[in-house]
Amino acid sequence: MTIGFSLRAAVSTCAVCAAGMLIVTSPVAAEGRAGTDPGAQGRPSATVPQPALLRREGTQVRLRSGAPETPDVSALSWVVADAGTGEVLAAHNAHEQLPPASTLKTLFALTVLPSFPSGIQHTVSARELAGIGEGSSLVGVVEGHTYRVSDLWHGVFLNSGNDAVHVLAALNGGWTQTARQMQAKARTLGAMDTYVVSPDGYDADGQVSSAYDLAVFGRAGLRNPDFARYCSTVETAFPGNGGSTFEIANTNRLLTGADGVEPYPGLIGIKNGYTSNAGNTLVAAAHHGRRTLIVTVMNPQEGEGFEVYEEARALLDWGFDAAGHVDPVGSLDGLRPVAHEARSVLPHPAAAPPPAAPAAAEEDWARDGAIAGVAGLGAGAVLLGLRRRARRLVRG
């Protein structure tokens, strides 16, 4: 079986290789810092951490003097967080339980991806493709064909292929077992709003997540180099009939620039989703300078189908502008509360060396922390390539 790669896919791969040099700031380094009273302008910082505001309804943000106002977005729930420190810069109904659609595939990948080396080959059976929900997005997995595990993961991340999810779940011990493992994985990450019924994110009674939990999954995924590489891939070749291949492209239009959506500079990717019940959902990350931000947007109530990308764009813009001008309203380290220090307003607050962290924890982060945040290197390829032709992509 021969697989070919386009120039754009090669450029995307090179961008991710460069991303291996980018290590985000350890969340452990934030522990033990003094808190600050958001109203105490010019006074010494307090000695106790601020309480998290994420369980409150509505928009939660702690603006300092000169901080930009949060953008007016229509999503039922959203989060803006720093991928390095885990600090949540602002949020709206962060813990509201909503159907996640295919953004739940982030948790599926966190759970299953480490179990199978990418080069393993597997011949698909009819049983493995049974039970795929009506109207599901598919990558084109065919009974009797042999695929590498990496092919199937490309199908999951790029085309949001529920057929690829079903095959990987079968390899993992079955649909029900995978759902149970995903549920357990969510809890170990401190994601308490998520209940898994269908591992592919297909609408199912009782299946919910939250903007907070999805941000936790996205952040955890970026610590895994394979996850980071797959989620930031723009396009690649997928095995077809008779040893041929066909091109598949990422359905995250904020990454690709497809369908008239302007690509976001420095975007890493992560995962988009849509069902009629969930509406449009998106977990995205972008890297500028020394900072990587994660945003989650769930079910915008205004605009057309691509409004989810524009609202994510507005939140990313705000997050980069507001960094250093806001105090956090909570942390993505749900099982390890972080006390936040008062920091001076600098272009890059992270420029000051953080307090020393335990060596083992730093090594764990460094080992798993290669982020595809330098995907901006591939932005030129995206603009030169994918914008040359409009592409109608399957639903995520």
What is the topological layout?
Layout: H1 7-19, E1 59-63, E2 77-82, E3 87-92, H2 105-112, E4 121-123, E5 146-148, H3 149-157, H4 162-171, H5 175-188, H6 211-222, H7 225-232, E6 235-239, E7 245-249, H8 253-256, E8 267-275, E9 279-288, E10 291-298, H9 307-322, E11 326-327, E12 330-331, H10 359-368, H11 379-385
Antiparallel strand pairs: 1-3, 1-11, 2-3, 2-10, 3-12, 4-5, 6-7, 8-9, 9-10
Descriptive overview:
This protein has 396 residues and is α+β, with helices and mostly antiparallel strands. It is built from 11 helices and 12 strands. The chain has helices at 7-19, 105-112, 149-157, 162-171, 175-188, 211-222, 225-232, 253-256, 307-322, 359-368, 379-385, and strands at 59-63, 77-82, 87-92, 121-123, 146-148, 235-239, 245-249, 267-275, 279-288, 291-298, 326-327, 330-331. Strand 9 and strand 10 form a beta hairpin. It is globular and about 65 Å long. It starts with 6 loop residues before the first helix and ends in an 11-residue tail after the last helix.
